[in-house]
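Deadline looming. Please check this record:
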Amino acid sequence: MPDFSQSSVIAVLGPTNTGKTHLAVERMCAHSSGMIGFPLRLLAREVYDRVVALKGVNRVALVTGEEKIIPKDARWFLCTAEAMPVNRDFSFVAIDEAQLGINPERGHIFTDRMLNIRGRDETMILGSDSLRPLIEKLVPEAEIVSRPRFSTLSYAGPRKLSRLPRRSAIVAFSLEDVYAIAEMLRRQHGGAAIVMGSLSPQTRNAQVKMYQDGEVDYLVATDAIGMGLNLDVSHVAFAALKKFDGRRRRRLTLAEIGQIAGRAGRHQKDGSFGILSGLASSDELEPEEIERLEDHSFPMLEWLYWRNAEPDLESVTSLIASLEDKPRDRLLQAAPEAVDLAVLKRLAQDPNIRRLAVGRDNVRLLWEAACIPDFRKVGADHQARFIASLWPYLAQGNGRIPHARMAQEITRLENVQGDISTLAARISAARSWSYIAQKTHWVEQADLMVERTRQLERRLSDAMHVQLTQRFVDKRTRVLMRGLLKGALPQDVALEADGAVLVDGLEIGTLKGFQFVVPSDSRREDRKMLLAAAERYLGPIMTDKADALAKAPDSELTLAANDAGQPVIYWQGAQLAVLIKGKNLLNPEINFDRALKDIAPENGKKAEARIKQWVEAMKAKHLEGLVKIDVLANDENTPASVRALFAQIVEAGGIIARRQIDQAVRALDNDMRGVARRGGLVFGALDIFHHALMKPGAVLWRTALFAALDEQSMIALPGDNAVHLKEWTFAAPDHASRLGFRKIGGEYVRVDMAERLVKQAHEARQAGPVFAIDPALATSLGLSTSVHDALLDMAGFEKTDDKPQNVELKKTEDTAAAAPDSTEPEMSGEPSSDDAPSTSDPSETTDQLAVPETPSVYWRWKGMGKARSGKPNKNHGKKPRGKRPGKPASGSRKAEPVLATAGGAFAELAALKEAMKK
């Protein structure tokens, strides 16, 4: 054993948060070389990064089981306790957390390092004050230095998870508890970072960085947090006070509780600890325990675990026996059977393995293989089988695991898809192969395998960090919960042009009109919180929106069918209201969207008033004639016969088949009929309609009003300028009329265009009893010959084989008007089609009546049957009597002049009513 008599041994003892590790790093860097052994790979990596910043990457080494970074000029080594290169000479050596010598699984390692590893100039033992009596007796040459805690640690009592202060760490002792707590914190506070000893340094650093940078306010950790990790924690909460230590479920010792609780507070910043409320009474802290924890007064250690550090390698049997030796000092106890020894015993039972484990070198090799850590936590049996599969490669041939075997195993693990549990299992397996790759004398192409396993673990770690963040961190929730806290600082709320609502630059949802829509990727349980946040933040925005709606021009609001076919009023792409059944067609109820009911009452009233105003404005614009007819239908001063007619027309939406109201029409005298025509009504041969109701806006609103009244879906609308529907299906017969179309054969023709064609035919009658009809107009409307013929037949015309006596067509101005039959249409008013020319212009009439020199089809008037007589027309199929071609029949009425505007007609009607009163 080396002579350490000239070296200085210092034991720095004290509670957590005393800066012991920081002191050791300072002392090491002051020496020409040095080494520190740590309890965790994560802690070794953390200190390695710190020393690299001080000394440079080429002079600092990191040595752990799975990772070795040893530059050629390395002088300062940061290691895990198990991986410390004990045969190298260093000016300074330190062992951290030496009180872990009491740990059943790893304690003998820390005991050995404390007793047997020394620096050439200085040795430092760092640990709890509970080590004092053992150091005094086992290392009598050591100078003991006490380091008091820099800040106060106090007990805060039980608290609910939802009531934990920010910058809290919650400690749990099972993977299931860690994930469950993190999930609850995500829902309640926006998320948490995860710190576990099984995480790779890369994943752990990424998680801790989120916490340290304030991206999350909470940390969920295992007891690994107690091993010196430097975190800015103000409060430590225990989710349990019991844990499974690999053999049994036991209560934490007071020293273990103190080690973990001591992470609260940093340097001179005070900290607190407590437990999560709801624990069993047996897991509560007793008053005397709380007092001792606050005073950092823990029971002194009476012994440490020990195992022979220089076992007998003559044979497998002697190796096992020496590892089970008993210590001679009463302050030391034989270590319980650790996983490595249990694996060795199982390997020794295999004859094939024992056959190859002959000689000191092979026995040493077998023991080295048995010490491969059980990163996967599969137990001694499974671990032994894994090592047994590698042993033949190590003990025979070139003594190396084939490159193909390792490459195959690494490739199998390179899949970065899967959930957290799957990725964790792959990372554990990757750590095993990383450990093996570091044994450069075990593998072929060692440098390549080291790099591949390093890349593998990095890729899996990145994927693990992403999975942990996606599952346990919700930035929206974090931002909103901070804003909802009492006394929280004001947060920046903005509304983007596309409706996105940003709080402190983070999108929490979208505002469509007055409806707040939570993001599609939000979990269902988060919706309530997001809606509550919207209610808090969107008040001023909703006021601005209500003001904008109140001032919005009519063109910004639209009427359209929603997915269910309901007539809906939209603004800025959002639904404001639905038209529903009212007292009659022209007076629907307006069912305002719930979003308008959820905003402030004054804003809701402004929005509702604007919607009502818009509906009235649209009815006045698109249904002006129908509205005025409705007014007259309900005016007591309007003659009863006109009121009855108008009421039926309004009920039909301004378009009605003439046969349906033929009796009411016949009841009108000439004056009343003229008044109705001047009101904008067209008395056609087939239909009676208001000419302005053919326009697209009128069709849309009439369809919407019928849908509301009938509580049915809106009828699908044709193109705005459609006058002929060749292939179209209506759910009900009256739907065609509501769109302004009449069924002719198997097709549909807009009623005003049908009346133009009928009028053209009547004008052709002026030529005589037998006449030709120019098909050009019908062709221009897209009508086939069969449909045109069917229309003319419906209007009282029939084909004839007779020839006209004179095919020379006289000019229209030289021909007297033909006398109409009682069922002949009385055409007045303007054509309603926006794209079809009027036929009231004489020049156009002349062009339309031009007949080919040798027409092939001739027509004659057969007359239309009376609507309600129930008897066939006696004149049907016969030539009309008492008429001469080109001259009107006796008693015929003079055609009414075309009225320029509907407004003038109502003025004349008002004057007529005044005259009737007199």
